[in-house]
């Protein structure tokens, strides 16, 4: 959520900033999967099934981004950023609802309503392939609605599927999009370092203060993009 506005502030147009950000976020997803590796160990069958749908959705979203005129993305990116900021704003509410649902059932790791889940996951992955900001919150909400499991395990599954979206999009854009590689590599390195050091800094930086900062940046960037379009 921060890296995309940062690239815009550096003068990159929204399309280049978007594909560069997509590549740069992959190491962060890798770090998340490493952190949740114990919770992912026995979810491999689910990850494989939903992963296949996620690959298709991410490919569709990435292809859509590159197939449509760049102007069409510039016309809606401000709204997408604002939508991501709203998702971040209501994140505690979403997390609370998912957590209450997880606690209300004893059926752990049982997939329910498989077809609706796959359809919803395809839609989320398509969005992630097109524009990744807010992807994690959206995916957690979908998994929380359609799967009965603990919040931690849902977060682990979300991390694995987010990595699939990120890897597919990054690979697609690497051969088809004008990526700003130097900023991408810098952001990727900082994202990986942030993932590795996140637990340590979480004790110093209040999470709520950081969340509010990200929300403020998101709203400011979204409004600026709408004014400039």
From TrEMBL:
Which cellular compartments is it found in? Cell membrane
Asked if the keyword Nuclease belongs to this entry, the reply reads no
Which keywords does the record carry?
Cell membrane, Membrane, Transmembrane, Transmembrane helix, Transport
What InterPro entries does the entry give?
Answer: TM_pro_TauE-like, TSUP
Q: Which Pfam families match?
A: TauE
What Gene Ontology terms describe where this protein resides (cellular component)? plasma membrane
Locate the transmembrane regions by residue number: 46-69, 114-143, 155-175, 181-202, 209-227
Tell me where on the tree of life, at the top rank, the source sits: Bacteria
Main location as per UniProt: membrane
Keyword NAD tagged:
no
Per the record, membrane topology reads: Multi-pass membrane protein
Which family, according to UniProt?
A: Belongs to the 4-toluene sulfonate uptake permease (TSUP) (TC 2.A.102) family.
Its name, as the record gives it, is Probable membrane transporter protein
């Amino acid at each position: 959520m921060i890296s995309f506005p940062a690239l815009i502030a550096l003068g990159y147009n929204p399309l280049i900033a978007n594909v560069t950000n997509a590549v740069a976020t992959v190491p962060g997803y890798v770090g998340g999967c490493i952190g949740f590796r114990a919770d992912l160990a026995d979810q491999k069958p689910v990850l494989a099934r939903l992963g296949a749908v996620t690959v298709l959705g991410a490919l569709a979203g990435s292809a859509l981004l590159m197939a449509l005129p760049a102007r069409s993305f510039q016309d809606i990116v401000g709204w997408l950023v604002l939508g991501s900021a709203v998702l971040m704003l209501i994140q505690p509410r979403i997390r609370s609802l998912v957590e209450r649902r997880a606690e209300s059932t004893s059926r752990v790791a049982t997939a329910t309503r498989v077809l609706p889940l796959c359809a919803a996951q395809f839609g989320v992955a398509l969005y992630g392939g097109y524009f990744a900001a807010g992807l994690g919150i959206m995916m957690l909400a979908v998994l929380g609605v359609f799967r009965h499991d603990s919040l931690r395990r849902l977060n682990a599954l979300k991390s694995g599927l987010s990595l699939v979206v990120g890897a597919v999009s990054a690979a697609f854009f690497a051969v088809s999009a004008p990526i700003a590689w130097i900023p991408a590599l810098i952001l990727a390195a900082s994202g990986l370092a942030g993932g590795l050091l996140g637990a340590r800094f979480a004790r110093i930086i209040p999470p709520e203060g950081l969340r509010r900062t990200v929300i403020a940046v998101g709203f400011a960037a979204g409004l600026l993009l709408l004014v400039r379009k």
